[in-house]
């Protein structure tokens, strides 16, 4: 998710869907471990077909475990036509970008180049001020865990793209992150920093600026040299203002908020979303990133522990760390994830704490329905717990 309207609402919806998957038709809880032994290609295909039947035009998924790599798709790549979906097609991953950015921040902390307790004012003097907003009271940790209280002005822009007319008006939007921060501080804060949790894309635009202040390089350059290049994520890009997707890719669609009719949103510039959600990837690359991150290949143990230290987000069982969310599966396994949404794409994922098993799901109908979210949560639960849809 890059956006407020999908932002915290979608995070709550994802966790709620996971809770449904963990309670409805779930097997008896056994030892807390993930296994792919009972989950095969046929089970994955059945789960994807269930998501398609819930109304998604197209969906692809990848399950990677010590037992192998499963990939499948269901639906169509082009609305109204029978066009196969490429099993590793490119898609906009939205707020999964935030997890990349959080990892870079934690690498910089491990190098002694910043502290999570540094104030925003120290790193970005004068940027967060006015209307009760005070960068002296907001730390980098608050940014990464969404406890800053800053208003999410990014969401105001994104809402305008929920209709075909709005999309055509704003699809090539260009805006500097500092301008978006200024729009945010034009509003009073939602709460005192550290006192509550509320999803705000502004937090990660600021995190991107912190990376630039600490390194002298753009956040894009640091993400590329620290994560994309070392992990050989050859299909992951930070396109800036380019509205084009690399080939192969599906067509993506958004359901008009006024007419409910799907309209194509494949051509879209998200450079203005920047460190909060501009990245493009594939299921293979995103799986490799999540497994490397939780497997300890990107961060020292101390920083990974900080990343997985959570705060409650306002409801029982819902917790958020530094750039990732925590969820409990039906088999007792704790999984980590960060959902993402942009006009046209929804990305869901989960990886076990040891990084050995991951699930990536990309849907092409935005913003999606509760039924589609629940079907996706069941796929994730089935795959990580090693069950099939009929178990």
UniProtKB/TrEMBL annotation:
Q: In this record, what's one Pfam family?
A: Beta-lactamase
Cite a single GO MF annotation: hydrolase activity
Q: Which residues form the signal peptide?
A: 1-28
Any idea which UniProt keywords this protein has? Hydrolase, Signal
Xref: SUPFAM superfamilies: beta-lactamase/transpeptidase-like
For the Beta-lactamase-related domain, which residue ranges apply? 53-377
Domain of life the protein comes from: Bacteria
InterPro entries (UniProt xref): AmpC-like, Beta-lactam-related, Beta-lactam/transpept-like
Q: What is this protein called?
A: Serine hydrolase
User: What is the phylogenetic placement of the source species in the record?
Assistant: Bacteria, Bacillati, Actinomycetota, Actinomycetes, Streptosporangiales
